[in-house]
């Protein structure tokens, strides 16, 4: 929708680092990042939905609006999402506060879909977001993240610290710019990330963890 391009561009002009893209994601990327989702996935937490490019695709896949929690920091995007998805829970908040806000009782979430610009964030913030999200993910649940970068945007030291592994789902070369989607899951035998652990994790991280990124962070899925 041309209106969405304008909303995005205006938001990007005001806060380029936070918005992280000059235009909403295209259909190829929206289809890819939601590929594993079915109505049986249950509650879904979407981070940084913007104008709702991924949200629309989730609904197309049969997800009920009542199963959606949308966490968005941009106030204009948040109001637009409330209008577009009146049955969803739309929260105007910083995704790095997932753990302290206690969005769910226990861990019922089947999938997290993230459009957040993680590459523009500090390691501390990435840890808060990822650990906070995993605190709500049920066993077997997955966190899906897209990136315009060549590697997984969650660096290896952070994956190690949180007991996670990342696999490349695929690349959406038709997206402008081309993007990749990664699936983050718990490693076998890794300790379950609780709310308390998620809160603690955000307070003790080396600032230079992001310098230690390696391609080994992301194991090709095939
Ligand atoms: C690259 S855009 C992706 C938007 C949409 N998912 C898409 O693919 O078209 C990043 C989105 O994340 C939001 N965002 C950035 N930092 C955030 C944060 N800390 N908490 C919540 N939302 C955030 C921005 O406002 C923007 O809507």
From TrEMBL:
Residues 208-222 have a biased composition (Basic and acidic residues). Transmembrane segments: none annotated. Residues 203-222 are annotated as: Disordered. One of its GO terms (molecular function) is methyltransferase activity. This is SAM-dependent methyltransferase. GO terms for biological process: methylation. It comes from Bradyrhizobium macuxiense. Keywords: Methyltransferase, Transferase.
């Amino acid at each position: 929708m041309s209106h969405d391009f304008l909303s995005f561009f205006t938001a990007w002009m005001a806060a380029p680092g936070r918005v992280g893209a000059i235009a909403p994601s295209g259909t190829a990327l929206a289809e890819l990042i939601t590929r594993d989702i079915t109505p049986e996935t249950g509650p879904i937490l979407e981070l940084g939905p913007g104008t709702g490019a991924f949200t629309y695709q989730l609904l197309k896949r049969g997800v009920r609006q009542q199963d959606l929690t949308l966490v968005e920091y941009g106030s204009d995007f948040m109001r637009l999402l409330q209008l577009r998805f009146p049955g969803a829970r739309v929260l105007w908040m910083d995704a790095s506060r997932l753990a302290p806000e206690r969005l769910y009782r226990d861990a019922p979430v089947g999938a997290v879909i993230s459009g957040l610009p993680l590459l523009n964030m500090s390691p501390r913030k990435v840890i808060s977001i990822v650990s906070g999200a995993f605190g709500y993910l049920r066993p077997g649940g997955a966190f899906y993240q897209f990136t315009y970068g060549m590697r997984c945007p969650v660096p290896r030291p952070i994956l190690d610290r949180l007991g996670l592994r990342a696999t490349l789902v695929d690349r959406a070369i038709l997206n402008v710019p081309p993007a990749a989607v990664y699936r983050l899951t718990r490693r076998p035998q890794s300790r379950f990330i609780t709310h308390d652990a998620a809160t603690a994790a955000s307070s003790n991280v080396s600032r230079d963890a992001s310098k230690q990124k390696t391609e080994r962070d992301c194991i090709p899925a095939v």
